[in-house]
Structures are given as structure tokens and as C-alpha cells.
Specification:
Shape of chain A: elongated
Number of helices of chain A: 26
Helix content of chain A: 55-70%
Pfam families (chains A, B): STAS (PF01740), Sulfate_transp (PF00916)
Number of domains of chain A: 2
Number of strands of chain A: 6
Protein name (chains A, B): Sulfate transporter 3 1
Radius of gyration of chain A: 32 Å
Structural class of chain A: mainly alpha
Subcellular location (chains A, B): Membrane
Low-confidence stretches of chain A: 1-11, 638-647
GO molecular function (chains A, B): secondary active sulfate transmembrane transporter activity
Oligomer: homodimer
Mean pLDDT of chain A: 85
Keywords (chains A, B): Membrane, Transmembrane, Transmembrane helix, Transport
Largest interface: A-B, 96 and 96 residues
Strand content of chain A: under 5%
Chain lengths: 647, 647
């Protein structure tokens, strides 16, 4: 190509070899893409200072954004939604607190303060704040490693508050440091597998309550739990078992109704509360306790007591507590944020993940000061809130007010709630989380995603929740690194009667130009794949030359299409220089087509452009092919003459 | 676009919507790309079984490939090269064994068996096998954590053999499992920083020998070593210091000569041996020992004794030993393979990294059975071998034979070698490894590479070798993950009088088509970046709409150029569906241009194509723009009429 530059005049457009952007400009742009991809401060530009302050307050404390325009019409919707979610919050609070092995009243407290905090700082309109099942169980299994909740319930409870405090700090810090990026690494497949596995072990756990067993295992894996049931089978009580089956059938029936007629969502939303009331009445009038039907027991009247003085940072427990706080914090963020944003998408809105993290963090922080444990935006409750027609975060305030009234006046009434009713509520909720259809979908579309999902599912069911999760996230990262270290390359051919070049495997009617090999590279070229790309290019050429037997078809030009190469590092440039040297040794010329701006800057800064010459760069595949064909004809004079003879 | 399909007839080429490739075909192709990117078994295809066996043996035992054609002419070159590297092997063996705190004779043993093994199994023609300085020091610092080499030298030595054994197993396993991919994650920047940092601490270590200090620290970091020198400054002996300075000056002068006149490379290659001989003569005739010049001391005559019975897998030491084995194994692979392949590139050849790993592994495995410690292909020795004109791995056999002769007859002569001469040799070798020019180059080209390099340099110098290395590799991985989670996107504009679309920032003369936003995506779209890509697309549209004030310029079509998107996973497809829904809510149509084969397969399998309709896919940007413009005109009848009025 070096000898044919005189031929280039008829091309209008050439590569832009102008000076690279400055370092600070690039750094700023990279930092912005990494930490502020949604450009949250755009709205402050071109505003007066006074407006900026107001907008800033509204940005950090979203309630000031919507409360000035709030009116009675909106409140009617929010009141109804708030009432509905409160009716769900009471049974869920009691049951999930049981899962976490803490007093049931804590579950009720957790639906008073956190929803208030979220209503002030949260930006989602549909999120309903409450406790979540999977994390409740995870808290139980992790903290009971260091303190037995039956032997020292007070210390255990204090450690749960401490874990919640750590969750709060962790979540707020992630949000403030704009590290929402971390949550992106929990893939959809991991969450599907985790939900399914958790649902399985939670359902099995509930068999204790359904069968009315007195003895059980503290482990969560499938094998231990089934073993414990078999070992204690003589304790199975027919009356609780019957009650349990009836309750589950009732709850599942209401779900079926909702599925058939989405307008009846309130039937299934109210069903857990109805179950609790009927169960309580049954236990009260039949003196169920005497027949072996275990009940919740005494519930103190009154709102949340202060718990800040109980936070316990004793180094003996700190490692387990911090681990609990961070893992549950991470999981509850993943659940809450993905749910919040999927409901926002339905209403054509968007949510700022990092801001949500700060709101979640503050909610758990204040929660840990006021006798609450971990809260998030659980899927079921948020869906009910959405379907009940909530308009703003006011529904959370309504929930908090009704919960406060319940705590002040009605709490003692719930003492007769039979444990079997709670087990039935949890089991029924969990059955909906086993998303086998999604697993089948994953299997059909992407086998590696399916593997990630199954690793999490089986890891959670047969080993433990944290191991399953870590293995699955690890597989996801491994996949990300494989993507990076083995980027796809393909051979391009020309589509007939056009100047378009496409993958020859994908478009079998495209044809290769004799003597020219066009390769499309993808992904950044850098240390993790530069050696691979070098070897892959050489293999393409070997494969090519073993096919073409006629001498005139020998590859003389390799065109590398850089359209998909988003960046390059120094090792990558070294690799290109080596590749070029190896190709030159075989009499093959290498040219680069359409390098992007980042790549071009690196190539200029490292003097790669000077080394290989500007004539090896092309803006456009068609130009490059034209140039190469010209030089091919020049280097094969006989062929050229023959062709002229025919003309 | 859905309404304008009648307009599509005049396009010759459309997207290929044919059935996806089968799962097994895809899996096979992916596994091949990941583990066998160089397609090593291609040569066995289309061969008779008998030829296959021969080719197979030649593949796994490369000596059978070249020995049948070996002749005396080649041997003349290899003999000279072998002699030259032996003269380097003797002083290096003694000095580096001192670094590893093992008897000097072990260093000599290590240049007998391993070169023989490498000559049989290795595929590089230029590699000269020998011990390496950085790993010797690393062995010392890591194993002395569990056993003090001065208190129990025998146990310490056995643990060094055991570490070498583990290195061998580890390297061979990596090669057999085709995990050469792991070495790719040690970037050029990390190696530069590691070499520089190691050179600094090795030079400082040598000040003990140069100053003739009796007491010193066992730590390696800059602060401890300088502190130890200051604390023991009363022990500094002028005679050894003088000798040291003279030796270093001599060695550096020979290097300077080589730099001025590359033909004089043998002067600098011989210089260490000359230093040892002159130093020995000086110590012998002046009775240096009495003047405080420490000497090497007694060296046993005879070749390597068997050491397999000394391998010690006591669990008390195993963790430290395994760590040493794996880290040094990894590092020595990285050094050896990168050097082997860079010399191969100079001669227009290629090296199979995985095969080299097996050869290295076998060499260390047999080494650990025969009183050798860790060996690799050190840069200095390999360069000398190359410059001395070696033709095949026979030079390593020559080295082994001369080393055997030395061990059998000459070893005792080296007892008078002064330690200061060894220190001078190490120091002089290390000074060449501080590649500040490369660091400046990194700073200029890529700031993140520079950061990775500096992290390793300062980590190694001020903390410890393994911490520095791990931090630097961790930064490299972080960068890889950032690449993956924040892929570059850009807005494309049309170049005048052409059908070519390019980045508008890079080509400021390109123009945007009113009402149409063309975005180029890069890298795979999947769980780690699908949310980012969604937000980034929405931000492009927001930015766009805040610029265009006139109503007729409002964006109605977003074209996503998928040329650079090498693959997609289920989360990525979900993200695209969400993006499409959000855009539709704003009255914007989304189309996908030129999806690659992997992406198309996933989109078909997940029914994405059915959901969005085939009319939203285009093969080519220019077709897509034409179609969009047509639908724009149809949707703006007034505008259309006006235009016609002008025509």
C-alpha cells in the first residue's frame, strides 16, 4: 500500500489524524461514564444559584419534589394502597421475624420507621417498604453461627440490629460513592437461581410449622432439613398439618383468582391477613394451644423503642455480623432496585439506582436505631402497592401510620396467631418465586446463563445461601473475563452489487476478494486478549492459505476492521506491532480500517501510526479494498496485461 | 417503520433470519476459541494414522522434530552459544542460590538437569534455561516465613525442593489444561513494574555483600533494608566496598561496550565469569578471608544427587510452600514464555504457550527430583544465547554437558569466589531491569497502564513482592471489568457525499440526519452493562432533545449500530426490550442495524425478533436511514407538501 498513495486523491474522506484530546478531558469523560452514567447534575446547569439550591434539595430529598403538588385526589389512591399493604405487612412482619429468629413484634416495628424514612428520601413512586424472606433466613443462619438465638435471645437480637446498622452504612456508602455499578454484577440469572433456591429451602423450613414439629435442624440445606423431618416424624401433629393444608389451599386459590382476573388482586393481597385472623379466632375459640397448635404468644403494646444503645461491635461477633450486614445489604439492594426500576419502566419513568441506595441505606440506618431489622422493597408488597393504584411514596406513610396504630392498640390481639398460619403464608409466598419458566427460557437462549442460574439454585439448596450466591457471581465474573480475553473475530466478505462487507458465515452469499483477507475484530484489545488476537489473526491466514491452492489467490493483504474495537492499551499496541512484523515476514501487508477515537489517540500517542505509516489506515472498508486491489494488480503484471488483453 | 415495509423491495440485501446454529456446534466453537485458539491439532487432519503417530510424538516431544535433520554445521553455532551461556550460568547459579539462601552448589546443579529436560520437551530454539533472580528472592522471603534457613538449613532446602516440585506440577497442569489464558492476565505493565521493583530491592539487598556487612535484615522492603544498613554502618569494610565498586564499574563498562557495538556482546557475556575468576584469584593470593573479604566456601565435587526422598509435604509448611511454588511458577512462566515468544517473533516464528508450559513444568518436576531449584528462561541468558547465534535447543544440551564437567572437575575451584563479586554481578544485572523508559512510555500512552505499573513497582519496593504483584494484577482485572461494564458508545453522523457513517466527535465534518439518532454500541451487551447501556441511550436522547429546539428536529428514530456488539446474554436482551418500551413511551422508534451472528442467534432464540418485528432490523445503516427518512416524511405531511411546493 505504501507505494500507491498517489491513488488516494479520489477518496474524499480519510482518517482523522488530528491531535488527541487532552488527558484531563479524557479522564473527566471516563470518570463520568463510570460513576455518573445517568448525568444526574445536568439539571443544575444553566440555573440561578437560588434555583440550584432548591433543585439540589429536591434532588437529595425527593419528598420536597412532590409534596408541594400533592393533593387530596392523589391521597385517595395512596390511602387505599397504603391500607392494602398494611394488611400484608402485619402477617409478613410476624412471619419473617420468626424466620430471622427474632421476636415477631420486631417485624411489625420494621414496617413503621423504615417506610417513613423511605417516603422522605426514596425516589420510586411504587416501592412498598417491608421485610424480606430470603434475607431474614440468611440473617438467622449467619448470626446463629456465633450466638444461639434460643440460648441468648437478647444478645442475638442486638447483633441483628448491629447487622442492620452495617447494612445501612454499607448501602448509603455504595450510593454516595456512586458504586451502583457493583449491583450490575448480580445478573438476572443469578437472581432467578437464588430466588428459586431460597424458595425451596424456605418451603422446606416451613414444614416444621406445618407439621407442628418441636425439634428441627438449624441448617438450611435440603438434605439436613429432609433428614430432620424424617428423624422427628413421630412429632407430626395431624391438626396443625390439616390447618396448614387448608390455609395453603386458600392462599393459592386467591392467587389463582388474581391470575384469572387481575382486578381481584386485592383478594390475594388481603388473604394473608384473613388467614391470620381466621387462624387466630380458631386458636382462641378451640384453645388450640392445648391441642398442640403453637401460637405466636405475647406481643407488647406500643411503638418502636430506641435500640441505638444495643448496637454491639464486640470483635468476637463483628466478622459474622459484618458479613451478614454486607451480604444482606447487597441482596436487598439488588431486589429492591431491580423491582423499583421495573415498575418505573411500566410507567415510563426512570429510577436513579445510586440515589435509591442512599435511601435504602438511611432507612436501615434509622431502622437499626429504632428496633427494626433489615428492610427493602419486597417484590410481593411492591406489586400489591402498584396494583392498588398508589400514586406517590405517600402510600408508605399511610402504611407507617396504620402500623403505628396497630402497634399502639391491636398488637396484643395477634398473640393467638397460630404458627402454622405463618408457615402457610410464607410457603405460599415462596411457591410463586420458583420461576421454572425463566429457567427454561435461559436454557433455550443461553446455556451459560442457565449454568449460572443452576449453580446458584443448587448451591443455595444443597450447600448454603452465601456459598451458592458466591459461586454463581464468580461464574458470572469468569464469563465476563472470558468475553474479554476471547473476543469474537470473523471474516468479512462483500455482498454482491454493494459496498457492504459482512460476516461470511452469517451471510453465505457474500464473496471474498481474491488476495485480500478482511477480519472484523470486536471488543477492546488489551493485555488480556492481545496474544489471543495475534494468534487468531495468524490462524485465519493459515486457514485461508490451506484452502486457496492456486498461487494467484495467496493472501497479500490483511485488512483489520476496527469498528468494534472500543479501546486499546499498550500491550494491545505491542501485539499489533508484533502481528504486523510476523505478517510482513510472510509477505503480507496489514492495514487498519476505521479505528475509533480512543484507539486512534493511543495509536498516535504511542507512535504506532508513525511506525506503520499513515497509508496503512483507512476510513472505510471499500476504500481499503480498492487500494489493495490496485496494488495487487500492480504486483502481478502478467495478470494485469492478460486482463487488458481481454478488455 | 412497521408501516413502510412496502418500501423495502429496492434493497437487495436483508438481515439473515435463518435458523441458529446448533448448540453442540456453538459449544465446540466456543471451547475451541477459549482453549485451543492456535488450533494445534490442525496438522493432524487429513493424515494417515502412521503419520499421525509420528506427528503426535513430534508435537509432544519437539526434539524428535529437529534432531533427525541436525548436522555439524548447526552444531558449530550451538556449541559456541552453549559455551557462552555456561560461562554465564556458573556465576549466576552461585549468586542466585545465595539469594535463595540455599547452598551455592544447588545453583550449579540447576543448570545441568533442567536444560536437558527443556532441550527434549521445549519448542523454543533460543531459550537458555537457568535460575532467575526475582523468584530466588521470593523463595527466600516466603519459605523463611516458616523455616529459618540459618537455623535449619536442611529442612529449608527440602522445602525449596518441594516448592519446585509444586511449581512443576502446577506449570504442567496449566499447560495440559490449556490454561495459558491465565498468563495473559499478567500484563506488560505489571511485569515492567514488577521487574523494576524487584531490581530495586535486589540491588539494595546486595549492599550487604558490597559493604561486607555481617548483620542484616531478612526483610526486603526499601525502608527496612536502608534502616539495616544505617544501623550496621560501623561494620562497613572499605576493602570489600572498593572491590565491589571496581567490579560493578567493570561489569557496567562491558555492558556499555555491548551497547556501543553489539558484536561485542560476548565481552559482557563473559564479564561475570571474569569477575568471578579475578575475584577468586585476588581472594586466594591476598588471603582475603583474613581481611574480612567473605568467600563462598567449600563446594562438593560431583553431579546432582537424587533429592526425591527429601520432598516434604508436612501440613505445617505446606501452605507457605504451595504459595511459593504457585507464585514463582506463575512468574517464571510469564517471564519465560514472553521472552521465548519475543525472540521467536524476531525470527518470524511462533511459540505454543501451552506446550511451553508443559516443558517448563517437566523441567521443574525433574529438577526437584535431582537437587535443582526453580528454573525458567531468564531474559539475560536467553538474549546471550540468541546473540551468540544458537540455532536449536542443542545449546541447552551443550550447557548441561559443560556444567556437568564443571561439577565433576572444577567446582572446588570456586570456593574462593568472594561474596562481593557475586553481589556486584547481581547488582549489575539488576540495574538493566529498571526500565524507566518503558514507564515513561506507559505514562504517555495510557495512564491506567502506568498506574498498574507503578502499583506493582511501589508495592514490591515498599511492601512485599507478592503484595505488589497481587495489587497490580487486581487493578488489571478491575480495568478489564470496567471495560466490560462501561463500554464506549458514540453518535454517528453521515460523511458528506458518501454512505459512510462515523463518530461525530472524531469526524466533526460529519452531519446528523434530522429526526434520526444513530448510536454505535461496542462490546458484548450483558448483565454487567445492560443497565448502563439502557441509561446511556436515554441520556443520548435527552442530550439530543435539549439541543434541538425546533419541533421538526425532534428525534423520532433511534438506530442502534450493533456492528461492534460481539455477543449478548439474556439480561442484555431484557435490557433492550426495556429500552424499546421506554423509547416507545416517548414516541421514538428503535431499530437494530447489522447484528452479528451470535447476537442474532440469541435474539431469535429468545423471541426478541418476533416481539419487535423483523422490520426493526437492518443490514446496513444507509438502508435504515433511508427507511426512517421515508417514514419521517410520511408522518409530517405539511412539511412534505411544502417541500414539494418548492420542487
Amino acid at each position: 500500500m505504501g507505494t500507491t498513495t498517489n491513488n488516494r486523491d479520489d477518496h474524499h474522506h480519510t482518517i482523522n489524524f488530528s491531535a488527541p484530546r487532552g488527558f484531563s478531558k479524557k479522564l473527566k469523560s471516563n470518570l463520568k461514564e463510570t460513576l455518573f452514567p445517568d448525568d444526574p447534575f445536568k439539571q443544575f446547569k444553566n440555573e440561578k444559584p437560588s434555583r440550584r439550591v432548591i433543585k439540589g434539595i429536591q434532588y437529595f430529598v425527593p419528598i420536597f419534589g412532590w409534596i408541594p403538588n400533592y393533593n387530596l385526589r392523589l391521597f385517595r389512591y395512596d390511602l387505599l394502597a397504603g391500607l392494602t399493604i398494611t394488611s400484608l405487612a402485619i402477617p409478613q412482619g410476624i412471619s419473617y421475624a420468626k424466620l430471622a429468629a427474632i421476636p415477631p413484634i420486631i417485624g411489625l416495628y420494621s414496617s413503621f420507621v423504615p417506610p417513613l424514612v423511605y417516603a422522605i428520601f426514596g425516589s420510586s413512586k411504587h416501592m412498598a417498604v417491608g421485610v424480606i424472606a430470603a434475607c431474614s433466613l440468611l440473617i438467622h443462619t449467619t448470626i446463629s453461627e456465633v450466638v444461639n438465638p434460643e440460648e441468648d435471645p437478647a444478645l442475638y437480637l442486638h447483633l441483628v440490629f448491629t447487622a442492620t446498622f452495617i447494612t445501612g452504612i454499607f448501602q448509603a456508602a455504595l450510593g454516595l460513592l456512586r458504586l451502583g455499578i457493583l449491583v450490575d454484577f448480580l445478573s438476572h440469572s443469578t437472581i432467578t437461581g437464588f430466588m428459586g433456591g431460597t424458595a425451596i429451602i424456605l418451603c422446606l423450613q416451613q414444614l416444621k410449622g406445618i407439621f407442628g414439629l418441636a425439634h428441627f435442624t438449624t441448617k438450611t440445606d435440603v438434605v439436613s432439613v429432609i433428614g430432620a423431618i424424617i428423624a422427628n416424624r413421630h412429632e407430626i401433629k395431624w391438626i396443625t398439618t390439616l390447618l396448614g393444608v387448608v390455609f395453603i389451599a386458600f392462599l393459592q386459590f386467591t392467587k389463582y383468582l388474581r391470575k384469572k382476573n387481575p382486578k381481584l388482586f386485592w383478594v390475594s393481597a388481603m388473604a394473608p391477613m384473613v388467614t391470620v385472623i381466621i387462624g387466630g379466632l380458631f386458636a382462641y375459640f378451640t384453645h388450640g394451644e392445648k391441642h398442640g397448635v403453637q401460637i405466636v404468644g405475647h406481643l407488647e403494646r406500643g411503638i418502636n423503642p430506641i435500640s441505638i444503645q444495643y448496637l454491639n461491635f464486640n470483635s468476637k461477633y463483628l466478622s459474622a455480623v459484618a458479613r451478614t450486614g454486607i451480604i444482606t445489604g447487597f441482596l436487598s439492594l439488588a431486589e429492591g432496585i431491580s423491582i423499583g426500576s421495573s415498575f418505573a419502566v411500566m410507567k415510563n419513568e426512570q429510577i436513579d439506582g445510586n440515589k435509591e441506595m442512599v435511601a435504602f441505606g438511611l432507612m436501615n440506618l434509622f431502622g437499626s436505631f429504632t428496633s427494626c431489622y433489615l428492610t427493602s422493597g419486597p417484590f410481593s408488597k411492591t406489586a400489591v402497592n402498584f396494583n392498588a393504584g398508589c400514586r406517590t411514596a405517600m402510600s408508605n406513610i399511610v402504611q407507617a401510620v396504620f402500623m403505628a396504630l396497630t402497634l399502639l392498640f391491636l398488637a396484643p390481639l395477634f398473640r393467638y396467631t397460630p404458627l402454622v398460619a405463618l408457615s402457610a403464608i410464607i410457603m405460599s409466598a415462596m411457591l410463586g418465586l420458583i420461576d421454572y419458566e425463566e429457567a427454561i427460557h435461559l436454557f433455550k437462549v443461553d446455556k451459560f446463563d442457565f449454568l449460572i442460574c443452576m449453580a446458584c439454585f443448587f448451591g443455595v439448596s444443597f450447600l448454603s445461601m452465601d456459598v451458592g450466591l458466591l459461586v454463581s457471581v464468580g461464574l458470572g465474573l469468569l464469563r465476563a473475563l472470558l468475553y474479554v480475553s476471547r473476543p469474537a473475530t470473523c471474516k468479512l466478505g462483500k455482498l454482491q452489487n454493494s459496498s457492504v462487507y459482512r460476516d461470511m458465515e452469517q451471510y453465505p452469499d457474500s464473496t471474498q476478494i481474491p488476495g485480500i483477507l478482511i477480519l472484523q475484530l470486536g471488543s477492546p484489545i488489551y493485555f488480556a486478549n492481545s496474544k489471543y488476537i495475534k494468534e487468531r489473526i495468524l490462524r485465519w491466514i493459515r486457514d485461508e492459505q490451506s484452502i486457496s491452492l492456486s498461487k494467484s489467490d495467496l493472501i497479500e493483504h490483511v485488512l483489520l476492521d476496527f469498528t468494534g474495537v472500543t479501546s486499546i492499551d499498550t500491550t494491545g499496541i505491542e501485539g499489533l506491532i508484533e502481528t504486523r512484523r510476523l505478517l510482513e515476514g510472510r509477505g503480507i501487508k496489514m492495514a487498519i480500517v476505521n479505528p475509533r477515537i480512543d484507539v486512534m489517540e493511543k495509536m498516535m500517542a504511542s507512535h504506532f501510526v508513525d511506525k506503520v505509516g499513515k497509508e496503512s489506515f483507512f476510513l472505510n472498508l471499500d476504500d481499503a479494498v480498492g487500494e489493495c486491489q490496485y496494488s495487487l494488480h500492480k504486483s502481478q503484471p502478467n495478470f494485469d496485461v492478460e486482463e487488458r488483453g481481454f478488455a
